[in-house]
# Entry
Amino acid sequence: MRVFSWAARVYWEDTDGGGIVYYANYLRFLERARTEWLRSLGHSQQELAQMPGILFAVAALSVEYRRPARLDDELIITCEPRNERATVMRFLQHIYRGSAPGAADDLLVEADVRVVCVDKRTLKPKRLPDFLVDALEL
Amino acid sequence: MRVFSWAARVYWEDTDGGGIVYYANYLRFLERARTEWLRSLGHSQQELAQMPGILFAVAALSVEYRRPARLDDELIITCEPRNERATVMRFLQHIYRGSAPGAADDLLVEADVRVVCVDKRTLKPKRLPDFLVDALEL
Amino acid sequence: MRVFSWAARVYWEDTDGGGIVYYANYLRFLERARTEWLRSLGHSQQELAQMPGILFAVAALSVEYRRPARLDDELIITCEPRNERATVMRFLQHIYRGSAPGAADDLLVEADVRVVCVDKRTLKPKRLPDFLVDALEL
Amino acid sequence: MRVFSWAARVYWEDTDGGGIVYYANYLRFLERARTEWLRSLGHSQQELAQMPGILFAVAALSVEYRRPARLDDELIITCEPRNERATVMRFLQHIYRGSAPGAADDLLVEADVRVVCVDKRTLKPKRLPDFLVDALEL
# Structure
């Protein structure tokens, strides 16, 4: 399955008093890439949010922080959907520094994120909409 | 009219790479004090958000940043409602460092915030609910 | 003086429970545009942060919120430097929705932001570096 | 080892357009509890940040999101240090809704967070300061 990638810049808002990106804020970069992956399929977050009867929520994630990102860094965030259950979107994601993702030195963050589709009323897992099942090649 | 005050601590999440609180984040502290002022009247933000037919939005604000707040600082945020139009909640707010608000040295931020009540459909200004008119002594 | 403009997208991270961009978060968009204006002059925030003996801080701002931005909106943020004192960078800034800034309907936010240059030790105002004085045509 | 716990309130700033706490923002709550655990030992984050020659960084985390937190919720965040290597602080953390942590219904988030101590220059792992080794009963 192809790897989608998206660029973002580090601004003051992203850093903390340690001079590096605050650990929670990498999760914002990760979501921007997932959102843009969705948009590359012709769909928006707003559209997912308004689907009748279902909602999407991050169910679990794990993150390894390898090197810190700093003010003014340009980041490349990747998003690689993985086969999982028909109720879950699973993404392997990486954040690299600079325009040359792939260089071992530039790998800042590795993440594994599971987004689950649930019934709005019962909160029980529900099958993903077809276009997502197709996109994820489930 | 009495001045309401609320304490908050500065954490890593609030600071930026300059080692001080990021300029947008003082607005979060200001809103916490307005929310707790509301709670001190026996009402919640959730309750305001669910009022049928109306919604509340910050319409304007001005902020003067006098001294920076730093990691681990304890802040006192004040909230002083002011007479204004019957469609607007206006608050003068101050942020002090430490437990002795009033000392000139400790004044970090002064703000003037206007929250407007509008019709959900037309977005035209609407009269505030009675309990807020009473609280604001309009 | 020319108006600089910069585009940004609204993601989940920017919104609040009201379904619109949280009022403090517009200040992050405003700063991104100021940072990119600086970069367009060939300078970075990191460079300003490392200038010996001086530092830059937002001293005051006023914001008028005209219309809310929503999830998935594309924003255009402008940044128009203004003549002011030799120790202050003043910016008039606007946030528009969509790719056609100028349409009255699309004006979401107006802001006036003052960034002051101060002596690192005494915190007294200091003259801006020459390249900024030039850029601001003071 | 005893479990430390800390209370926090959910404000507008923490929520997103889905009406629940934004997934990255739970990490801010988690850090507040770790910071207050540190303070309960008589030490501050500022003090850690200024230790000569070493720095602390989150190296890895995993989070399971069980139920969403909403506007106005009061949260209890726990922080349970665990034995690990002498260069790592590991914390098991839980976020509960309300004042009765322990009720299965109220468990919102489970997290496992590793903070590593490294040499400031070489970024190689370094032994934690003695007071932390003692606190962690390593």
